[in-house]
Amino acid sequence: MNLSLRDIEYFLAAIEYGNLERAAAACDISQPALSKSLQRLEADTGLALLDRSGRGLRLTSAGLAFLEHAKQLWAEYRDAVRHAMELRLGEAGLLRIGVTGATVDSIVMPVLKRLLPRRPALRIQLTQGLSDDLNEQVAGGRLDLAVAPLYANVPAVLRQEPIQEDLLCVAASRNHPLAARRKLALPDLQGLRWILPKPGAIARKALDARYAEAGLGLVPAALEVEHFSKGSLELLAHSDLLALVPQSALESEHDLVALPLAFSKPLQRHIALISRNATTWSPLMSEFRAAILEQPGTR
């Protein structure tokens, strides 16, 4: 077997675009050249990787198994090239970090505030997105690291290192009618509207689960957000809305309070540093990790 990294690249592009014409354009080659590359890869592996019947491209069962190995091989090759560049440039280098709305200002920016002065030649490329997308980008080698809420189910090639734990609380304006109560239960919140993370978010699922346990319907959302920005917290502070937010977010928001709501078990948010299991850690990556762990509140 004599696998070509270029053929691996073209195979991954074909899967990503699901169409030979679009994949060939993305790789800046002709469609016949791409077809020959895929045929060569199938000949080298001895496997039928693609089902070309019907419209578009579909992976065979063998192709599906090979895909994970191809992704890992291509990501490791890109790591090797980038690390070689770092060696040529000495301390200069690019560190690609994925962040979510929940982690960019609270964790990553304070780390960069300390790290960048230490490394004048360091370049940071931040990519903000949802956890699932960031996980895929780390797994595919397009990001070096990500700082994101921890998920139970992630691609097997990823490593999640828990770095922070934060209790979630139900917050409201200090002037909210329920703010003066000494104790509350979920039925007391019936009929009230919320600012909530989008469906599928960890915190949203946890709150929905508590409502279901109490025999209540879905939580009514007046506003759905990807993360709680300063503007959304100000809206909360000047309305009768409720929100499920990290307790740490209330430290700088004096117009907001945590309502005394008793849950069957605490709602917690876990933040993790995401990396690839097989990656070779560069000095830049290791230094970023060390700076993360130096922060108060991290493990």
Describe this structure in words.
With 299 residues, the protein is of the alpha/beta class. The chain folds into 3 domains: 5-73, Arc Repressor Mutant, subunit A (Orthogonal Bundle); 80-164 and 270-294, Periplasmic binding protein-like II (D-Maltodextrin-Binding Protein, domain 2); 166-268, D-Maltodextrin-Binding Protein, domain 2 (3-Layer(aba) Sandwich). It contains 9 helices and 11 strands. The protein has helices spanning 5-17, 20-27, 31-45, 61-89, 104-118, 131-139, 202-213, 230-237, 283-294, and strands at residues 50-51, 58-59, 93-99, 122-128, 145-149, 158-173, 194-197, 221-225, 242-246, 256-258, 268-276. The strands form 2 sheets. Strands 3, 4, 5, 6, 7, 8, 9, 10 and 11 form a 9-stranded mixed β-sheet that branches. Strands 1-2 form a two-stranded antiparallel ribbon. Strand 7 (194-197), helix 7 (202-213) and strand 8 (221-225) form a beta-alpha-beta unit. The longest helix has 29 residues, at 61-89. The radius of gyration is 24 Å and the shape is globular.
